[in-house]
Specification:
Length: 105
């Protein structure tokens, strides 16, 4: 269970980055609250709040299950969570952007 928690902490940490960056730059970006969900853009404020929420969830998980940095299974679980969600989101938003370009948006 400890490694699963760290896996999700890594996923939430990875997911907080684009939302915080978009929000702080004042740019719209897709969130689960957009229409269509995960494809349409949400406001910069919604993105910032969603990114902050993701960061909070990751930090709560890490406080409850601390990680010793180094070559160990805890760091592997954390990195794997970030890697899996990162690859998924990169592919998903790559398709979203490609479809938007094809529509001339």
């Amino acid at each position: 269970m400890h490694y699963i928690t760290l896996f999700f902490a890594g996923a939430f940490l990875c997911n907080c980055i684009p939302h915080l960056v978009a929000g702080l730059q004042g740019r719209p970006f897709p969130t689960p609250f957009a229409k269509p969900r995960g494809v349409g853009d949400s406001s910069p404020l919604v993105n910032f709040l969603w990114g902050a929420f993701n960061l909070l969830i990751a930090l709560v998980r890490l406080v409850r299950h601390p990680v010793t940095l180094g070559a160990n299974f805890e760091c592997v679980a954390l990195a794997l969570g970030a890697l899996v969600i990162g690859v998924y989101l990169a592919r998903h938003f790559g398709r979203v952007q490609q479809q938007a370009r094809a529509r001339g948006l």
